[in-house]
Amino acid sequence: MSAPLIQLDLDIEGMTCASCVARVEKRLTALDGVEAQVNLATERATVTAPSTVTADELVAAVAKAGYTATVRPPADERAAADREQTPTSGPTSDPSATVTTLRTRLVVSAVLALPVVLLAMIPAWQFDHWQWLSLTLATPVVFWGGYPFHRATFATLRHGSVTMDTLITLGTGAAYLWSVWALFFGMAGMTGMRHEFTFFAPDADPSSALYLEVAAGVTVFLLAGRLIEQRSKRAAGEALRDLMTLGASEVSVLRHRAPDPTDLMAPTRTEERIPIEQLLVGDQFLVRPGESAATDGVVVEGAASVDESLVTGESVPVELVAGSRVIGGTIARGGSLVVRATAVGAETQLARMAQAVEAAQLGKSRVQRLADRVSSVFVPVVLVIALATAIVWALTGSTMEAAFTAVVAVLIIACPCALGLATPVALLVGTGRGAQLGILIAGPEALERASGIDRIVLDKTGTVTSGRMSVTEVWASGATDEVLALGAALEAASEHPIAEAIVAEATRRDAARPVVSDFASLEGLGVTGTINGGTVLAGRPAFAEDQGFRIGPDAASALASAAERASTVVVVAWDGEVRGVVEVADTVKPEARAAIGRAVSLGMTPVLLTGDNAAVAARVAGEIGITEVIADASPSDKVDAVERLQAAGHRVAMIGDGVNDAAAIATADLGIAMGTGTDAAKGAADLSIVSGSLATAIDAVRLSRRTLGIIRGNLFWAFAYNVAAIPLAALGLLNPMIAGAAMAFSSVFVVLNSLRLRRFRPAA
């Protein structure tokens, strides 16, 4: 019998390029039964392993690859630490410290390197013995400024590996050592020596050639690129950090106790302030104006306007009353609430959102997996190319200096860090921005599937419609409010959705409900009672006729109109006649028609797929502008409908919210679950919409396509850069310092290009 599987997250320090990622993955997966996915942007690995494999073994495997790893704490512990603003354990726990250290190295190195570069580039500024000043200034830049690169190089070399940092160390080190040799043993140290900087390989006496500006300048460029990269990666993860720190650190819990017979004035409910970690399911807690709800729950008392924008992306505050659902992390803007906790810790919606976003950010697209495989052999290939370059230049009779310049340029320009960052940084930003808008993306595979969608299939109830019955029309032979007041008085005791809709409408209109006596209910037919001495009925038309109430011509006309609209009707009758007809229907979401229009503009043909009857389906489809309707569909029928569209060559997205939609969501090329729906639907989906808004669902497709487009652009740039730059460097057409600037820019470009996703906005 095989051992059960466990999953651990590791924080990894020291990775700088895609070849590092491939090396760590190779070491981890060499352990029996271990699967690992390593992400450069988040500097993390998610490992699935048999329970017989210990965390120490996994950490040791990473160490054998030349890197440092620590086990990542659970999400709720990290969130608590973030709220307290204390660093969690692990090498990546304090990214601001890394940024500060890099900034210090960059500033000092830039100040020292600037005179070195200017003296090398401007012969008129070169004075006697200027070269020795350059050596003095360049030495701390190369060794102290470049220490992060050199440390990584020697750490991996100890384990028989080479990485991007190896190329940097070889390139800058060779340029520096050549210059030292030329100064001490060649002609470069002579008084009056002058040096001319060129963009192309010079052809001069190698014993007088200096490359100190290359060694110092490249180090500064690389430090600048690394700093921008780290700051941008940190900014890219801000959305996730915001999610994990939304909850309060403390909560006011209400404690109940039995009345004290000796002190009847003593309170039976007291307030106690406790850390959020001590809150239990079932506890009642207080949310005051301006405070965040400590966890998920249900309102027990009070009413408040609650801002859910940070969780659902909805900008309009939601009015919550007794019985309303509360999402942890949302903010009460007006009024106070007493909430009963229904979930705590990792079980809250906020925690599950954060976990989903983190899981998505670790994923890799098919193209990125190819890039990782290429990068794993890229550095050794570059070393071979550099050696071949030196040999070819030597065989063609060129000067030693020209050959050396070409070799150094090849080593410096070929660093594959842009390849490693192309997908994870874009995914980091895209999923984080999606989380801010209430969109949870399962991973890069979902982005790839979203790109080719041309059919979007929508469930009706809860997706296109609100999923709640509402009063849409009222006909009355007299006063409308009287019909609603009498109907609501009879229906007040019922929990049926139709009854609740009538009561809600009467309350909205402030229609005062009279007292009912002699109440009687016939299941599925209607209710009767005595009001002000007379018998009043609310129910089906046939039930009213059976009870002896006449349906007059006007009432019959109102019923016929309701039938045309496929509405559900409740008649209200008294004094022997039907005097009111109340139409109730599941109303279309306000944003639905505009959302369907945007789907069409994105090249997707909408299809309404519902289990409701054809008349209701046709009415709803007509309201929102859908022409293709499939009605009376069972769960298996929905799967068949999706498969038929796929068989016809279409790429299908399915949007739904119920258990009956789960199979179709899983079958579709892209599954989208509304967050107001069931766990079964959300579990089968590639994208989940926290707010349940159809407009947000269409925005999710837009964001997915935009993110994938950024990823493809990044990968194209990274590949094209190396393909074009390495031959130029090998041919001696690039000065090594220019090569270093170009290499640093390639990584910065990929990161900054990805950060454009932070500006993604929902469609107006």
UniProtKB/TrEMBL annotation:
<feature type="transmembrane region" description="Helical">
    <location>
        <begin position="167"/>
        <end position="188"/>
    </location>
</feature>
<dbReference type="InterPro" id="IPR027256">
    <property type="entry name" value="P-typ_ATPase_IB"/>
</dbReference>
<dbReference type="InterPro" id="IPR044492">
    <property type="entry name" value="P_typ_ATPase_HD_dom"/>
</dbReference>
<feature type="transmembrane region" description="Helical">
    <location>
        <begin position="402"/>
        <end position="429"/>
    </location>
</feature>
<feature type="transmembrane region" description="Helical">
    <location>
        <begin position="714"/>
        <end position="731"/>
    </location>
</feature>
<feature type="transmembrane region" description="Helical">
    <location>
        <begin position="374"/>
        <end position="396"/>
    </location>
</feature>
<keyword id="KW-1003">Cell membrane</keyword>
<feature type="region of interest" description="Disordered">
    <location>
        <begin position="73"/>
        <end position="97"/>
    </location>
</feature>
<keyword id="KW-0547">Nucleotide-binding</keyword>
<dbReference type="InterPro" id="IPR006121">
    <property type="entry name" value="HMA_dom"/>
</dbReference>
<dbReference type="InterPro" id="IPR017969">
    <property type="entry name" value="Heavy-metal-associated_CS"/>
</dbReference>
<dbReference type="InterPro" id="IPR023299">
    <property type="entry name" value="ATPase_P-typ_cyto_dom_N"/>
</dbReference>
<dbReference type="Pfam" id="PF00122">
    <property type="entry name" value="E1-E2_ATPase"/>
</dbReference>
<feature type="compositionally biased region" description="Polar residues">
    <location>
        <begin position="86"/>
        <end position="95"/>
    </location>
</feature>
<keyword id="KW-0067">ATP-binding</keyword>
<keyword id="KW-0472">Membrane</keyword>
<dbReference type="Pfam" id="PF00403">
    <property type="entry name" value="HMA"/>
</dbReference>
<dbReference type="InterPro" id="IPR023298">
    <property type="entry name" value="ATPase_P-typ_TM_dom_sf"/>
</dbReference>
<dbReference type="InterPro" id="IPR008250">
    <property type="entry name" value="ATPase_P-typ_transduc_dom_A_sf"/>
</dbReference>
<dbReference type="InterPro" id="IPR023214">
    <property type="entry name" value="HAD_sf"/>
</dbReference>
<dbReference type="InterPro" id="IPR018303">
    <property type="entry name" value="ATPase_P-typ_P_site"/>
</dbReference>
<feature type="transmembrane region" description="Helical">
    <location>
        <begin position="208"/>
        <end position="228"/>
    </location>
</feature>
<feature type="transmembrane region" description="Helical">
    <location>
        <begin position="130"/>
        <end position="147"/>
    </location>
</feature>
<feature type="compositionally biased region" description="Basic and acidic residues">
    <location>
        <begin position="74"/>
        <end position="85"/>
    </location>
</feature>
<protein>
    <submittedName>
        <fullName>Cu+-exporting ATPase</fullName>
    </submittedName>
</protein>
<keyword id="KW-1133">Transmembrane helix</keyword>
<feature type="transmembrane region" description="Helical">
    <location>
        <begin position="737"/>
        <end position="755"/>
    </location>
</feature>
<feature type="transmembrane region" description="Helical">
    <location>
        <begin position="106"/>
        <end position="124"/>
    </location>
</feature>
<dbReference type="InterPro" id="IPR036163">
    <property type="entry name" value="HMA_dom_sf"/>
</dbReference>
<comment type="similarity">
    <text>Belongs to the cation transport ATPase (P-type) (TC 3.A.3) family. Type IB subfamily.</text>
</comment>
<dbReference type="InterPro" id="IPR059000">
    <property type="entry name" value="ATPase_P-type_domA"/>
</dbReference>
<keyword id="KW-0479">Metal-binding</keyword>
<keyword id="KW-1278">Translocase</keyword>
<dbReference type="InterPro" id="IPR036412">
    <property type="entry name" value="HAD-like_sf"/>
</dbReference>
<dbReference type="Pfam" id="PF00702">
    <property type="entry name" value="Hydrolase"/>
</dbReference>
<keyword id="KW-0812">Transmembrane</keyword>
<dbReference type="InterPro" id="IPR001757">
    <property type="entry name" value="P_typ_ATPase"/>
</dbReference>
<feature type="domain" description="HMA">
    <location>
        <begin position="6"/>
        <end position="70"/>
    </location>
</feature>
